[in-house]
Model the fold of this input.
Amino acid sequence: MNIYEAVKQRRSIRRFKNKAVPYAALEKCIDAARLAPCGRNQQVGEYIVINDSEVLPGIFENIGGSIKLPPDKGGPRPDQAPKAYTIVLINKNREVDANRRRVSLVDLGMAAENIILAAWEQGIGCCPLLFFDEANIRPLLEIPEEYDIALVIAMGYPDESPVADVATDSTNIFVDDKLVRHVPKRKLADVIHRNKFGGK
Ligand SMILES: Cc1cc2nc3c(=O)[nH]c(=O)nc-3n(C[C@H](O)[C@H](O)[C@H](O)COP(=O)(O)O)c2cc1C
Done:
């Protein structure tokens, strides 16, 4: 699988096989994250990887969005819940000035995509999540005050195959009557501007 193929095939996965994700696979993802581009090479990111079956349910209780839809609406059955998570942390001591947060969030978006692609290559699907309850997750994972949570990434071996459709009016994702998730993506011609804004 080359990088372009991985980028084209990757979809967010919200239903997972009942199969543990080995620590070595997660470690490889974080190795990819730490090498991502970042402003001034400041490397504010640190990562908690979770695959302990005793810790997973507490995280699942504190995430949201489509990954928490009921099973008949495309969400996971209990056995299809995520089998691992990466908690993407911002080490505030490495944010040298007050305007740094915008850079940190871009940095960690890039690191997150590295994680997701390194996972995909290993057959592991991911769903990045901004719906999470930071106040509840912090004590569960003993996260110190000098760290903020930027993103949670749910992970596991895919038990669904979402498809990218061509968006017409709406970009809302939906699940059809066979529980296949459809992800409308805007057409290339609608998002590219050649040499000047609006250039064809
Ligand atoms: C910054 C960000 C936050 C997201 N937050 C959530 C979330 O809280 N819950 C969820 O189910 N999906 C979440 N997603 C996944 C998006 O819904 C998904 O990426 C989008 O529908 C496009 O689908 P695709 O990833 O398969 O291309 C998030 C994605 C991103 C990039």
User: Anything to note?
Assistant: The chain has two domains: 3-70+77-160, 162-200.
